[in-house]
Amino acid sequence: MDFKLHSDYKPTGDQPNAIRELSDGVNNGTPYQVLLGVTGSGKTFTMANVIATVNRPTLVLSHNKTLAAQLYSEFKTFFPENSVHYFVSYYDYYQPEAYIPSSDKYIEKDLMINDEIDRLRLATTTALLSGRRDIVVVSSVSCLYGMGNPDDFGQNMIHIACGMNIGRDEFLRTLVAALYSRNEITPERGTFRVKGDTVDVSLAYEEIMVRVIFWGNEIETIQVLDTISQLPQENVEEFNIYPANIFVTSKTRMAQALAQIELDLGTEVGMFNKEGRLAEAKRLQERVTYDIEMIREMGYCSGIENYSRYFDGRSPGTRPFCLLDYFPKDFLTIIDESHVTIPQIRAMYGGDQSRKANLINYGFRLQAAADNRPLRFEEFEALTHQTIYVSATPDDYELNKAEGVVTEQIIRPTGLLDPVISVRPSKGQIDDLIEEIQKRIEIGERTLVSTLTKRMAEELAAYLAKLDINCAYMHSDVETMDRIKILDDLRAGAIDVLIGVNLLREGLDLPEVSLMAIIDADKEGFLRSHRSLTQMAGRAARNLNGLVIMYADKITDSMKRTIDETERRRTAQLKYNEEHGITPQAIIKARNLIIGKEVDEADIDNENRQNRNRGGKGKKYEYTRSKQQLPDEIFRQCEAEFSPSSGLAADPVVKYMSRDDLQSAADRLRADMVAAAKRMDFIEAAQLRDQLLEIEARLEKPKPTEK
Fold it and tell me: Which residues contact 327 (CB under 8 A, 6 or more apart)?
């Protein structure tokens, strides 16, 4: 089946040329291409058109889950008739296994899997192995981590058809081999139940059930059931049931793997003994022996991924299988925001190996654990034969790979121009900024301010609030739910000024923002590099009156490059508008769609109330905005109450709590952490985890001896 693009719009501006150049490059076998697309130029629409034109399976790689979810939603809209999938890490909460030699502390692996994301991952692998070619997979870098052998996954697929000669018991054994489990009570995903000659299978990768009815040793009927009502929707003649887990293998390979694990265990224990490291030898012997027994009895063990090399039949040092192995050989790779995603891919291998090295050296894992890892960067490149890098600020690496050839998309369909950039002295910058903010408030427009530190953002917000300016600050300590509400309040006009450290991380597309003010623009570094300055300037590119003010005492090389590039783009945009008689139009964007879902204010208020009750930071920006209405002493109390360092673990009363009270507090924090993880609020879950670890550290301390 071919890709069928659905859209109410047609390519305009630079889009037709970009689509043609990129599509021709793919069809002609060009290995690397760069799409330099400015903010608001419709890069996603261009990507969708290229996919539809070249008609190849495509991997779209993003650097975080949220942006991947946004892209997934957009591609689902563009290709409703095709197979669009979402593949990201399925952990709501993940504490990797680690050992810290300096403190002799072993940290056990702790995790919680998001069931829905797990289903979406399985749906991705089954679609890729189904033979379909009209597939788009939007993924985070999770796709580069180890997975099961695609050959084993495909071989464990169960094909059934009406009239097939297979007994019920034999069919049940094939389901178990495909890692489905029997559950007669609740039809959960990846389970089956048996009633006489009828077997109901709850598929692990789709929200449907399959009913197989036997007549003797023959399949008489196959029905597709609704999971909620469990009523038949249709009868089918044949059906493919794919495994319930990505990690699946055969009995023969499992036996071979266990034999090899035992051989390697003997070798490595012998090495420890020879070196006189008896504690490490004993530890490794006990841990691996226990894992082997668990695998023999249950088919799995905790940390079974550390033995993946044996089950995959790989040689030592070879790369693991990953999602890229499931794609056809001619698939296309599109790397979104490549200037961020490429460095992230480069860093994954080193971080993983540094943690594994301690576990291996101190007898917690076999050396084979090092081969359960993400791909090295060169391994990733070897698997991606044709790549399109997409960014408003492509890095030198991407430009070099494309041999300096860049496809530009700097003309916006709306005719909007890049904002004017004004450089002003830092002396008196706050007074000048306040004057500019007041101009925007009078005409109903908004302002973004970028600072270098969290403290500066908070203090500037407090100062503006004293002047009756509705403002908020936003940085990494502000809770996820609050960020959504802050951005919506900014668009609605409840907030006129938003102050942040690195506002790029939010992916802010706010048409109401006409002023982007950059404090300390001449302080060279990551936050004031050429690419960061260009990305920040793009925040004001969706407004007719877009203006960027750089407060600085000198013009750095980064500032000059950003100013020159912006001026070049404005010149090209003005020329295009004049030649085509285009009048720039403001972007109209629905509210509450910043992260692709509606925001329920009652839910947010309830969420923040729960956070305050359990010692969380609360709704920071509310008291910042209303500071002018409170006496300074009361404001300081509020500030202390909601400071990032507060929370149960930081409460001085904790040191006087009994062990029973500490245990109760730990149980409560763990429950709250689990609840946050289920809501996919990863930031709050991590904060609660940190508080829980502090409480548990107090519990581990020996009770003082009474005199």
Answer: 57, 59, 128, 137
